[in-house]
Amino acid sequence: VHAGSVTCGLAEPMTALREMRRVLKPGGVIGIRNPEYSGFLIWPPCDALRECYNRLQRNAQSRGQSLGFSMNSLAVLREAGFVRREASASYECLGVNVEVDAWMLIFQAWLDRGLSDHATVQRLEAELRAWGQNPDAFFGRPGCEAIGYKEG
After folding, report:
1. Is the peptide bond before 44 cis (omega within 30 degrees of 0)?
2. Most exposed among 30, 108, 127, 145, judged by the fewest C-beta atoms under 10 Å?
3. Cα–Cα distance between 64 and 84 in angstroms, integer?
4. pLDDT in tens for each of the 152 residues of the chain?
């Protein structure tokens, strides 16, 4: 089973992990990877981008989701019943314009759900686009990954 950026978006991640373990054959392997929101690499500093991620976390928490579901991957796999576990961390260095374009989609979803207002979205969009035009702009997103083995 592979669950990339899945468990962090669920209201009941342990239920899902236990079900994943249940359907695995004996000796089966699960791999999970989730973003770690505390370690972004952003250059030059961009307050709008940090504000966006802070808003994303607050919105997710208000829906019962757990975006802080990465550094504790070993613990959650143990709690889900996996006895042998291994963990690591890595960074994805996304293209700056890929990151900016992704936020434009998120902004639209916020507006559609009434989670933000047009003035705020327009301000954030303008600041992010300006940051993205900087030829030296850099964005790195950390992720924590872990694998667990079902006894078999």
Report:
1. yes
2. 108
3. 29
4. 999 888 877 878 899 999 999 999 999 999 999 988 888 899 999 999 888 888 888 887 787 776 767 888 999 999 999 989 999 999 988 778 888 888 888 888 888 888 888 899 899 999 998 998 999 999 898 999 999 999 98
